[in-house]
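Summary for the funding panel

The consortium committed to producing paired sequence-structure records for every protein in the target list. Below we show the first two records in order, beginning with the earlier of the two.
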Amino acid sequence: MNRLLLLIAIAALAGCNDADVASSNLSKAADNFQIERRVVFYNGITGEYILSVEGLCSIGNNDRSREVSITCKTGPNSYKKHFLGLSDNVTYFAEQIDAADVSTYHYKVIFKPSVIVSDISVK
């Protein structure tokens, strides 16, 4: 069984280059609120900024079409979530504010038992 898992991991890594691994690791770090980002929404016709969100922010991955959500960590156990609609003339860009040290040799796997086993309340 261990050999099978090792072969699967080697096959998965064979098609990856350093940029792909670094990009994946940066995305995972940002989704775990480890990377400072600035997300700016602007009007493409007027060229004016509509909104700017900065901080330890994750950009939604499963948003509806023409919608984007941004979740930011504001304290040890506090978060804020913003929902924004996109249109033909409103779009956004996300900027990583500071450089981050991520490995190009190893994938980052994050295991969060609290997500797998939710809080249990007994009455």
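The next record, for a separate protein in the list, is shown here:
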Amino acid sequence: MSRFVIETTYHLPVYRQRVYQAASVEDACQLAIADEGWEDEDEDVDTSGETFVTGIWENADRAYQGTARMIPDAFRETIQRKADLFDRLVVLLCEPAQPLGLSEVAFRRWLPSVLAALAEADAIQGRSSMLPGEPTEDMP
């Protein structure tokens, strides 16, 4: 039986509330982002994020030793999974938007990738699939 060192993380929101004099909302936001002083910070422990896995090492006694293992997707941070999926979806959904359109062959090659990405999106959202059934032979 293997031994695993599992590193888990959660994000703890830290915030500050300050007054900024500015000509516009955008200017005030820019001032707030550029402000490096955090001596008046507060931690918002009531809204800390989910716990997720950030590292796995097999047959080790400490992190960063032994054999590093891939983190199963279900245990990665949800927001990162959403960001990765968003990138995939943009690429997939842009394909049929090319000026010349898709041939039937190209569409049949494209559709399974889109359906798989959308099924992954449903899984990340923790909901049952919102997709219709499998494509049929009479589908273009």
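Regarding this second record: The longest strand covers residues 52-58. The two ends are 51 Å apart (CA to CA).
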